[in-house]
Amino acid sequence: GNLRVVARAVPDGAAGAVRWQLSAEGQAAPWSLWRVAFPQVAIPDLGPRSCVLFPKGCGEVQRDVWNRAFRFTGTYPSGWTTMQFMAAYRESPLTGLYLAVHDPWGSTKDLLCESRLPERTVVLRYEHPVPDMGLPGNRFQLSGEAVWQLLRGDWCDAAFAYRDWVRKQAR
User: Fold this and answer.
1) Do 148 and 39 touch, CB atoms closer than 8 A?
2) What is the pTM of this model?
3) How far apart are CA 67 and CA 47, in angstroms?
4) d(CA 171, CA 164)
5) b/e sequence 65-93, b meaning 16+ C-beta within 10 Å
């Protein structure tokens, strides 16, 4: 069979968001899916006083990572990667992006926040281990949904967006 990847984007105008679902299947033996990187975005330099928020411990903010080497990686869930969201924003005027995987089951995923100096971008990425990795014909279905949401605020507003989702959906 042929590998089939389906990405479904659903706009949520009321929230200023796009909600994504992703699946992959159909690869023939001897091929197997091992890891899926989704969502992944490269955010251009947002200008002076730009920040990233990433889930190290209780959450950490770093400024101006577009102009210096920076890298955070962590495996969720763990004691040092405690949430499934990240954000990039400019402090004045307030604008940015909230990026999350709203996974009610808290499945394992690796998060990356990394500056790419030649492009002056910051990459935010979620990488998921695929069940039955190494077995031909395995399948992947994103648990929950990936969310890209316009952020008109700072780290606190991003944390509130995640908190609101947790209260309604997390199991």
Assistant:
1) yes
2) 0.95
3) 10
4) 13
5) bbeeebebebebeeeebebbbbbbbbbee
* DSSP letter assigned to residue 117: G
Reading the block at residue 78, the tokens are 């763990």
**Better-predicted residue by pLDDT, 170 or 20:** 20
Sign of the C-alpha dihedral, residues 124, 79, 36, 118? positive
Are 17 and 148 within 8 A, CB to CB?
A: yes
What amino acid occupies position 160? F
pLDDT for 1 equals: 66
pLDDT over 80 at 131, yes or no? yes
pLDDT of 171 above 80 = no
Predicted pLDDT at 26: 86
